[in-house]
Amino acid sequence: MDRFKATKRASLLGIIGNIFLLIIKFTIGIISRSQAMLADSVNSAGDILSSFMTFIGNKIAAKPSDDDHNMGHGKAEYIFSLLISVTMIVVSFKIFYNGIHSLIYKEYLEFSIWLIIVCIITILVKLFLYLYTRNLSKKINNLLLAANSMDHRNDMFVTSFTLISIIASIFGIYWLDGITGIGISIWICYTGIMIFKESYDVLMDKAISEADKKKVLAIIDKYPEIKKIQHFNSTPVGYKYQISFTIFVDGKLSTHESHEIADKLEDDIIKNIDEVYLCVIHVNPL
Q: What pTM was computed for the model?
């Protein structure tokens, strides 16, 4: 599967789906004066931006390495994920304000069967987008798609709570609408912070995970010629890692023999660990 073409298709599908949801949510939210539905429509607007940023970030990340970017453009995925997270956090504050305003001034929604219909449509659309992007993100290991997948999943729960508040209004429980709007804002903010942290870690060259490091060390342990290793380092390159370390071998081995060991080890690591993009091994005599 072409990683970048698959991401492009998923982002375009997200844009189309969220534009449709934005239109119906905003229209019905204005008519019914539902703060929860309007908050949901703002969330859909943010989703459009997220899908658009996924499209642009993926396009940049797909560019091959060049003289100015020797390691390629893979970190564009994380730069745009960071932008998506900031947008989500800003939007969440606006939704929170609207929810508080609704509670203080007792702004009641006008019940309409269309509110329930829009919620059901939204849940079904988001369920499809969530399953599609989640499975795809796992197959191609893409943070942008993983972020979109979480966003679609969150939207399903958010809209479910919106549906509950709408049904509650039938029984005169109007305050639940404002509370739901506040709850939505907190959920969006939390998701934005989590995406921000993950993107920030990669952009700040966070080391490879301990689990993947143990996989590398397990492969090294299979080589009895290697007496010890030092200076294990790693740095993210797009969605993968470049690792480097020094191995110590018997000083009686020829330069050719010792480098044959290193070459074979490099091939083993790259072949067996998908997270490793490049392996650089320095050889020292013991």
A: 0.64
